[in-house]
């Protein structure tokens, strides 16, 4: 391992330059105008995988954005790890809030800045570089390695889901290694063993067939913006609980052991509120903040728009208004069942003069990995060594729907080795990634590959 | 009057040609690139007023667009009427929806087509031509006449407001005659005696200092979109009444006579709903549609925006959300008092984790002219004669803020003699004006001048 660590340290600056090149490609999966950038990004990545020494590197085209695959399976008596990542990134709006162009990455204050610096180009690079280090120093990694990097994570992994069920043999593995989560705190190595699921809906309320003059018509018709607001207001009760029928029916109760594990993490509400710039936290009554974030389901409006939104005044009753509403789900909630209940409920909340359209944008199941799994314990050891501190086990509020697919289809445990920080502004302006975490992440990845090679047989 | 009517009929085709010349000038007040056209239009109008026989015709320059004034005050023992209009027009976008070039007026299907054909060049032309007819036939009109035609009505009458308070003596009059409203129905002569006021506010809710990942943070913080929606929902009670404290305190109760007057208008809810493309009407319980439109105050969101509003999904808790919220006011509500109550109330409706900013965009007082006013009754007689049908008295839901200024500053009643139809597409593509209404409007104007001359002394 000494050679490997030395190699990673010596070549770190070069690695950063390569990563910056990767970040310069504006691979925003949700924007049709970036579809060419998605192809460009996939090709770039495929070349990178070929260059580090992988074989069978292929860019699979899909109905939407390409999937990149590469492998080295030269050790039939050793276990196989599937390393997953995504090369697509979130949109950059509000663009005016960035202090630099999001696709012109830079190194500053010990951080790498740019859209995708953390999520997920930066985090996945840790594994690419650790595998490369083994190839360069020993001609091969100590275990069989398969890389699978998709371009639709930020929009629901639609193509990857089909790809997995079609290529189960190709993707066969003993563990799935994913770095797409956060560390519990700066300097605290973390293995995440649970993720919330997601259900993302869009609701449109339509009233009069065109915008109306609010003077000539105000008082006579239901206003789609006001009615949409009323509907949204009804989605929570006064205790912050979601009112969609059956919403809590299948929710797994938190065990005493887990409650105790959470308590040991000594989460500070005051510090958290300060970091977010809010005077007070909020949410479902009767639960601690960590419980609300990790094991309780939630409902949030992600966006709303309707009528006149420019400078000054326009006196209209808007013809329509719409909102994006998403729910974070926990084991054992079923997103599809909840989508049906949500749709029916929302329609019941509109008055007669309003036409309601509800559509599902995407969903993902919640997941929890057994803590006692050997691969998970091996990963905890690896990060503990790399970061020089005992790893903690956490759950996370976010969703990686594909993790459930992986576990169900490939029958292997998923290891969530988060290298980012909550303060890295992923999905927001000024996204960044700590250089120290990137470097230690590379080393942790190397430790994992080494230790994992000794696990089987 | 026979000579006058004969003159107006005989010269109608020439009048139309003159009006078309007027319509060819693209006097769009909101567009800086049309500022030269505004001057050209004012000069054209001033020449027109000189040519019909008025004296002291002057183009007053202002901070923005010129104001045109002209008078004949040769009958000191007779009353004085101030005729108001505006030569500016609305923008023409969406230009692709016009079936002809908006500034190339044409006569077709008994209508004059072009931007400004109704609003307001066409309507004001009725008065210019009736005054001309008196000059041509009798050397002078039967009353003192003052024309005041501005170029900023479509952008808030900013300069006119100052002009009125500066020139109270010049503008002194016994009644203000305005044709800038609509007839109740085709063929039904109409005098409008009330307009609602307006209070236009903007509210912003701010939560976390940046957009947050809705997975990592959902459940822990107040979401500005959800909270804004909750606040908006609370602005009405279940009977559709506005809940802002003191909102209804000063509202003038509808008299029995007025209620009866409204009933006689035989308004059809079903027809109205069909025109607007809605399944059902809505609004404050306990009032008819006409009452809700004309004499009851309302509150509407004119626009709302927050978070991600593009295609697809972005899983954020937005940092902020804002809404434009306007209220239509009725006598004797005070917009400034209500603005203060609204601001305080809205702030009280937000939870601790949300920062609230409320600002007032603009306001205008409501107005009602006493029905029994002699000038108003005279106008009703005049339109009844010209249209051969008994006039109806209506109020209107919209606001013409300058009308209140006129009444307050000049201490004279305003007569709203609408000659247009709701279906004339003012402010929209393919604006037009019925030739029959233009001609009858000229005759109605002449009858009014004649009858008004007999009112005083």
Automatic annotation (TrEMBL), chains A, B:
Domain Peptidase M20 dimerisation: 193-353
Species lineage: Bacteria, Pseudomonadati, Ignavibacteriota, Ignavibacteria, Ignavibacteriales
CDD domains given in the database record: M20_dipept_like
Species name: Melioribacter roseus (strain DSM 23840 / JCM 17771 / VKM B-2668 / P3M-2)
GO molecular function terms attached to this record: metal ion binding; peptidase activity
Name of the protein described by the UniProt record: Peptidase M20
Keywords: Hydrolase, Metal-binding, Protease
InterPro entries, A to Z: Bact_exopeptidase_dim_dom, Cyt/Met_Dipeptidase, Peptidase_M20, Peptidase_M20_dimer
Biological process, per Gene Ontology: proteolysis
């Amino acid at each position: 391992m000494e050679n490997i660590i030395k190699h990673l340290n010596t070549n770190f600056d070069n690695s950063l330059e390569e990563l910056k090149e990767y970040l310069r490609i504006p691979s925003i999966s949700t924007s049709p105008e970036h579809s060419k950038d998605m192809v460009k990004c996939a090709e770039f990545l495929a070349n990178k995988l070929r260059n580090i020494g992988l074989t069978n590197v292929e860019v699979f085209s899909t109905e939407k954005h390409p999937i990149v695959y590469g492998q080295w399976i030269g050790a039939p008596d050793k276990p196989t790890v599937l390393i997953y990542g995504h090369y697509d990134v979130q949109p950059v709006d509000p663009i005016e809030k960035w202090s630099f162009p999001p696709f012109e990455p830079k190194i500053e204050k010990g951080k790498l800045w740019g859209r995708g610096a953390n999520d997920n180009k930066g985090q996945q690079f840790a594994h690419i570089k650790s595998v490369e280090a083994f190839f360069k120093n020993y001609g091969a990694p100590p275990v069989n390695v398969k890389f699978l990097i998709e371009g639709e994570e930020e929009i629901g992994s639609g193509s990857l889901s089909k790809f997995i069920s079609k290529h189960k043999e190709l993707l066969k593995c003993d563990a799935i290694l994913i770095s797409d989560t956060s560390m519990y705190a700066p300097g605290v190595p973390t293995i995440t063993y649970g993720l919330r699921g997601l259900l993302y809906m869009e609701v449109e309320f339509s009233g009069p067939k065109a915008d109306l003059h609010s003077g000539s018509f105000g008082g006579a018709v239901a206003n789609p913006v006001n009615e949409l607001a009323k509907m949204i207001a009804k989605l929570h009760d006064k205790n912050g609980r979601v009112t969609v029928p059956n919403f809590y029916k299948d929710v797994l109760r938190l065990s005493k052991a887990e409650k105790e594990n959470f308590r040991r993490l000594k989460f500070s509400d005051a510090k958290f509120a300060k970091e977010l710039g809010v005077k007070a936290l909020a949410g479902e009554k009767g639960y601690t903040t960590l419980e609300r974030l990790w094991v309780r389901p939630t409902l949030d409006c992600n966006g709303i728009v309707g009528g006149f939104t420019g400078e000054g005044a326009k006196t209209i009753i808007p013809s329509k208004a719409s909102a994006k509403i998403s729910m974070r789900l926990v084991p054992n909630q079923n997103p599809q069942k909840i989508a049906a209940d949500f749709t029916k409920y929302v329609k019941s909340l509109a008055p007669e003069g309003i036409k309601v359209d509800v559509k599902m944008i995407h969903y993902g199941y919640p997941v929890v990995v057994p803590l006692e799994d050997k691969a998970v314990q091996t990963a905890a050891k690896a990060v503990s060594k790399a970061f020089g501190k005992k790893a903690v086990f956490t759950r996370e509020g976010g969703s990686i729907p594909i993790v459930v697919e992986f576990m169900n289809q490939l029958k292997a445990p998923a290891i969530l080795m988060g290298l980012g920080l909550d303060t890295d502004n992923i999905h927001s302006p000024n996204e960044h990634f700590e250089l120290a975490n990137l470097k230690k992440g590379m080393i942790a990845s190397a430790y994992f590959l080494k230790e994992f090679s000794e696990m089987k047989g």
